[in-house]
Design goal:
The protein has 491 residues and is mostly helical. It has 23 helices and 6 strands. 45% of the residues are buried.
């Protein structure tokens, strides 16, 4: 097979890596707005302005317009720093994840230098980075305002410190507390990052490093402690518990008394959810099955840490595929050396591995191209819509309108209404309920971006005849096109 011949050539693997990097770079100015970019940008904006988090977007939801206590604190604080330096700029916010991804890749390279027996050729290192750059999750989230890359950095740096600690008798004493501090900062970045504290602590226990595990745990707590920086009174603590109990994401993670077992039984859903994830899962699965003994003998510490991280990811987090990002470099480092020596496998194993790797590359490459093809200039379109609305107006809008209108309007998100209807009232939202919500919250304008709105609204709007339906629920339609519909309240 062609792929088998390519893996024999260092030059061809290097060219593949260069191609994947060039594709990523070309894609940067062509990226569409990610669904989470507006949320986190607005949250970062308010932290930079006030020193604590509140949200105009989420007015009317869990007292978020007064103060939010449950959020990805380390990541949003970093976003506030980005805002302070670059202003409210979409590409600057998105580039923050690229910074953390590249910093994490430096750590991945550092690990390969610690294992010269396994990563003895440059071809193996090239293959590792090719698989990471072509991976759709890294292609997408490497330039999206999300916390996964920042978590990955702290988690992998913690592992490197622990690896050096347990594999060298002359290792510096500071490595254990440093590893704990970094793991704790992973949790401070995003609560999912607590996975690194649990996995690191368990790793040391299994290694029978009992004193080190205690020290590690103490410094995990120190690293995580800043999570409570904005809780300074009993009222704040009560607000924190209220929001924690009613958080719409955390509410989906309860499982009753059998929650741990249930979560483990359902963990496969994370690995078999999207084609690009499934393709990686298949090459991972077959490589581990066919070459497990060798992988275990060559990289037993990485294998142990990866297994523990995957276990706690299953037990502690929601079943979303994007959290796989924080362990994907671990998994890639485990399997890349085996894949490079694919021709050493006998019979059907060789062809199964080649086919699964080919599937991974082609599927992920195809979806990466889709990300580029869906590009749009959201701030430019928002500026056109803003010409219809006086500055200072109270607006109910799709979240994307914050770019770059956050300083011009009081913007409440349509999602605040949608979440309340679907998660708490258990009632399907509708245009009627949405416009009634707008009236209740004194919104003068409603801006619906069909690409950033709940399907219920878009389906209803697509059925309207705008030649005859010019008013609805005390609102008048003042503009519409294929993507936007703008309403103005009449009284």
């Amino acid at each position: 097979m062609v792929l088998q011949n390519i893996l024999k050539s260092k030059k061809k693997i290097k060219h593949g890596l260069i191609f994947s990097i060039v594709l990523f770079v070309i894609s940067i100015p062509l990226r569409k707005l990610h669904i989470d970019d507006p949320w986190i940008a607005e949250y970062s904006y308010w932290i930079a302005k006030l020193g604590y988090l509140r949200s105009d977007l989420m007015q009317g939801f869990l007292n978020y317009s007064e103060q939010m206590f449950v959020y990805h604190k380390g990541h949003y604080l970093f976003g506030a720093l980005v805002y302070k330096i670059f202003g409210f700029t979409m590409y600057a916010f998105k580039a923050s994840s690229l910074f953390w991804m590249l910093a994490s890749f430096v750590l991945v390279k550092a690990y390969t230098r610690l294992k010269p027996d396994v990563f003895s050729t440059q071809s193996t290192v090239y293959l590792v980075f090719f698989m990471l750059f072509i991976n759709n999750q890294f292609f997408e989230y490497g330039f999206a305002l999300r916390p996964e890359m920042m978590m990955l950095f702290f988690g992998f740096s913690s592992f490197l410190a622990l690896y050096k600690r347990v594999n060298s008798q002359s290792a510096a004493a500071y490595l254990t507390p440093l590893a704990g501090l970094l793991a704790g900062l992973g949790g401070f970045t995003h609560l999912t990052g607590l996975v690194f504290s649990f996995s690191g602590f368990s790793f040391l226990l299994i290694k029978r490093e009992f004193k080190s595990s205690f020290i590690f745990g103490i410094f995990c707590l120190i690293g995580f402690a800043p999570y409570f920086y904005d809780i300074t009174s009993l009222a704040d603590w009560q607000g924190f518990l209220y929001q924690l109990k009613n958080d719409p994401v955390l509410a989906t993670m309860s499982g009753g008394g059998f929650a741990p077992l249930t979560k483990l039984l359902h963990e496969h859903q994370r690995y078999f959810v999207y084609p690009w994830v499934v393709s990686f899962t298949l090459v991972l699965f077959f490589t581990l099955i066919f070459d497990f003994k060798k992988i275990k003998s060559e990289q037993k510490d990485l294998l142990l840490m990866t297994g523990l991280s995957a276990l706690f990811l299953a037990l502690l987090t929601a079943k979303t595929a994007k959290y796989l990002i924080i362990i994907t470099p671990y998994l890639t480092l485990l399997i890349a050396p085996s894949l490079l020596k694919i021709n050493n496998f006998k019979g059907a194993k060789k062809y199964v591995l080649a086919l699964s790797l080919f599937l991974f590359i082609t599927v992920n490459f195809g979806y990466n191209l889709q990300i580029i093809s869906r590009a749009e200039d959201k701030p430019k379109k928002n500026a056109q819509i803003a010409k219809l609305i006086p500055h200072g107006s109270y607006v109910l809008s799709s979240i994307s309108f914050v770019f770059n209108q956050i300083d011009n309007y009081n913007i409440q998100a349509i999602n605040a209404h949608t979440l309340w209807q679907t998660r708490y009232l258990k009632i399907a939202p509708s245009m009627d309920s949405l416009l009634e919500f707008a009236t209740k919250h004194q919104r003068s304008y409603v801006i619906l971006d069909k690409k950033f709105s709940h399907k219920v609204y878009t389906d209803e709007l697509n059925s309207w005849d705008y030649h005859t339906k010019t008013t609805h629920k005390n609102f008048k339609i003042i503009y519409h096109d294929k993507q936007f519909v703008v309403f103005k309240r009449m009284t």
